[in-house]
Amino acid sequence: MKRILIPTDFSKYADQAIEAGAQIAKKNNAEIVLIHMLELPGQSNDAVTGETSIPAIMLFKQKADEILKSIKDRPYLKGIPITEVILLDNVYKGIATYANKNDIDLIVMGSHGSSGFEEIFIGTNTEKVVRLSNIPVLIIKQEVDQLDIKKIVFASDFSKEIKKPFLELLKFAKIFNAKLKLVMICTPNSFKSTTAAEKIMKEFVAEFDMPDYSMETYNDTNIEKGIINYANAKNADLIALCTHGRTALTHFFSGSISEDLVNHTSRPVVTFKI
């Protein structure tokens, strides 16, 4: 892991992501790219000839540049190579496009507690970054004094299409020397016997050089509650999910499970694209 992209809107939630990203960067001798998106009125048509004048755009850019430079001077970023980027673009498209074109290994984003996204991360922006980005996205939910990831819960249906992103998860777990807790959530609408679920999971992991790990099934009323309750029961440091590029989460994670999960858990969440 050499380059970590951290979008910032200068909110305290983005600052939490920067602190977490700094800890990961120090573990990997990685560079941090701080990116601020200037999404201005009239931009969807023409930012220059629309509602925002060129002097106003330059003023916004100058102020953003000053703040980014002040962020670089924070003590916890000392010794980490920092690149500052300001782009005039749609927030989620700009973040995903920059990450995909600039050899970014991880995107770290901040969000507001367990009650939704704030500032540039309101609503579906984070969901769309996850959906568009080919890069893993780590979502930080609260202030992190020490990002000590020792237990990672990975919830899945363990289908064939999960194999490629699962390899990325194994690399991520290796960075932290973390134990993987693999779980298949069984609900009334997607029930499997323990024997059937264990068979699927054992056949899945047999193809990989596995680190320290365990496998379990967990019963709950729905997938989202099952993941959250299982992660709470195991006191997990991180929840890992696989996402689909077209329709958020596929198969096991249908509908808006990813967005709901991120909104309703206080734990960090990392997503890997199928």
UniProtKB/TrEMBL annotation:
Q: What is this protein called?
A: Universal stress protein UspA
List, alphabetically, the PANTHER family matched: STRESS RESPONSE PROTEIN NHAX (PTHR46268), UNIVERSAL STRESS PROTEIN UP12 (PTHR46268:SF6)
Signal peptide residues are none
Judging by the UniProt lineage, the source's domain of life is Bacteria
Q: Which SUPFAM superfamilies match?
A: Adenine nucleotide alpha hydrolases-like
So what family is this one in? Belongs to the universal stress protein A family.
- Record InterPro entries: Rossmann-like_a/b/a_fold, Universal_stress_UspA, UspA
UspA domain span: 1-141, 223-272
Give the source lineage, highest ranks first: Bacteria, Pseudomonadati, Bacteroidota, Flavobacteriia, Flavobacteriales
